[in-house]
């Protein structure tokens, strides 16, 4: 019987033929990284392999001194007895699915992904494979995203309402990924963008790497409050309800997260508005992707795994739940998705 291409271990998803781990949650000799969020890219491994676009982001997160190699989209990298390649996941800048082939069997580890092209993160690429490892962050039928254009229209209308009411507009968004998506898609408004230091640091790295993002202004203790009036502040979730944010009063707080799809979450987050804009696939996107892979077996990880796996089984797609250490990015789960 042929050995599985990938196995699930206490240290992460492991490739026996290649001797590497995909997004290991314990230090490994060789770590293949899907994207630079901290629950997938952890410090301590001896050598890292990721997409070229992810290299500066891994260095930002893990330190300039790490040993890291970047590969191009679709470029085949041979490691031991395995062939590996990266393909767009659409989750954030540099995010990838990892395709691994051993002895004619192909497995794909999706990492985190979304199927709507946001304009900056790359268009998701469905991959044919024998076995597919899928995330299931929003693996419930209630999660069905409206088109991105409609949500950004809502955000712009909210900003105009705040301006008319004499309130400062503040959007809460994860500092790496979501914040850049907002900036890219709101650049046409002509507004100035004022940001927290966590967002500024990531933004500067991406600008230095040549990404077409609008300029931002770092908020410091010396930034005049009047300069920000009628413009937009973007804050990471960690600064919500903090002394840093309270100094902008009067303000209206909008939270950008897929969790805002559920009525009541906006109020629970002490926000004035909730925008259900997610960097993960919704229920429809998950099912469409799984069918497009043609996979003979699906493993569901991090999220509503049991619901998704049961649905797949009921529809004649063999599926299994796998527990991982993913899904715990350093900023609260209510706002980083």
From TrEMBL:
Q: Where is the signal peptide?
A: none
The GO terms this record gives for MF are:
exonuclease activity; ligase activity
The record's annotation in SUPFAM superfamilies points to: Metallo-hydrolase/oxidoreductase
Keyword Nucleus assigned to the entry: answer is no
Q: What's in the keyword line of the UniProt record?
A: Exonuclease, Hydrolase, Ligase, Nuclease
Q: Name the Gene3D superfamilies for this protein.
A: Ribonuclease Z/Hydroxyacylglutathione hydrolase-like (3.60.15.10)
Which E.C. number(s) belong to this protein? 3.1.-.-
- The main enzyme category here is hydrolase
InterPro entries assigned? MBL, RibonucZ/Hydroxyglut_hydro, Xnuc_lig_assoc
What this protein is called in its record is Ligase-associated DNA damage response exonuclease
